[in-house]
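Changelog note: in this version the structure field was regenerated for every chain. One regenerated record is shown below for reference.
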Amino acid sequence: MADQAKTGQQATPDHRIVRALWPVLLAAVVSLFPFTIYSTFLVPIAEAVAADDAAVGALRGLGGVAALVTGIAIAPLLGRLPQHLTVTAGLGLLAVTSLLGSTGTYWALVVFCLGIGTATAVLTPALLTSATTAFPRTGDSGRAATLVTATQSLAAVLAGPVIGVMAFWRGWEGALWITAGLATAVAALFLRGRRDGPEPAEPVRYLKAFRQFGSRPDVLALIGIAALRTTSFMGYLSFLAAGYHDRFAMDASTFTLVWTLSGASFFAGNYLAGRWVRDGGFPAALLVAGLLGGLAAVLVVFTTTVLAIALAATVLMGFSHAIVAAVATSLIAHRAGPLAPAAFSLNAAGMSLGVFAGALIGGVGLGIAGNLGMACALAVPTVLALPLVRAVFAKSR
C-alpha cells in the first residue's frame, strides 16, 4: 500500500508469499472439493439415495445456513485459539463429514451438507487470518489474504477436471474418500508445522467482542459491501446457464466454456487487484470502478441478444466483482487488527447470506418481469453497496 512505500519497506514478492503459505493455499483448495463433488455428481448421488434431483440439490442450501449461523456464532472466538488448531479442526470436520456423505443415504447427505457448511465457516476465516498474521508488514498481509482467495477462485475453475480424475476410482464415493484423505493429510501438516504462529489473543467476553465493531464503521462497511456484492454475483451465477440457454440455445457442455471464462476472469481480477492495492493503488477508486463495472455487466448480460456482447459482459462481471472482493479482503486484513479473525468470520457469514439472497431476489425479479426484471433485481445490491464506499474511507485509519 501507499504507506508501505513511504516507509521504504519493500513488498514481499508473490512467490515468497506462496512458498511460505503453501499449506494454507492447499487447505483452501481442498475445502472446495466436497461441495464441488456434490454439484458435479448430483444426478448419481440422487439416484444412490433414491431421491429427486431437485430435493437433493436443495440440501446444499443447508450448508449455507450452517455457514451463516456458524460464522456469526464463532466470530468472537476465532482469535482465542492458535490458528493451526482451528484450521486442523475445520479440516478434521471436513474429512469426517466427507466420509459420512459417501455412505449414500439421504440423512447422511443432510449431515454432509450441514457439516461441510460448518467446516467451511471455520476454515475460511482461519486460513485468511493465518495468511495475514504470517506477513505482519503493511501491505503484505492484505496481499497474502488475496492470494488465498485468488487460489480458491482458480481452484474453482480447475476443480471439475481434477474431481473427474478422482472419480475414476469408485465414482463420487471414491472422490469423497480421496477428499477426506487429503483433508487429513493437510491437517497433519498444520499440526506439525504451524505452531510458530502468533499467540492467541487475550480472551474477550463474547458480547463485548461484537460491541467492538461499533467503533469500526469502516470494517462493518467493508463487510456490508462484500455481502451485497456476493448477493448480486451469486444470484447472477444462479441464472447464468439458463440465460445463455434461453437466448442463445447453448447446451450444457458448451456452457462449461462460458463458466470457465467467467471463472478465469474472476481469478484475473482477484489476483491483479490484490497486487494493485498492495503496491499503492487507490482502493476507493478500485471499489467504485468494480461496483460500477459489475452494475453495468449484470444489466447487459441478461438482456442482450448478441452472444459476443453477452460474453464480454460475462468477463466484465467476473473481473469487476473480483476487484471488489480483493479490495475488501485486503482492507479488512490491513485495518481490522485484533478484530481480523472475527471480521473475516462475519465477512464469510455475510457472503453465505448473500448466496441465498441473490438466488431469491433474482428469482423474484425473473418471475415478475422476465430477464429485465431479474437484471434490475440483481443490480439493486450493487447500487446499495456504492454508498458504503464513503463509509469505508470516511476518515483515515
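Spot check on this record: Residues 18 and 242 are 37 Å apart (CA to CA). The radius of gyration is 20 Å.
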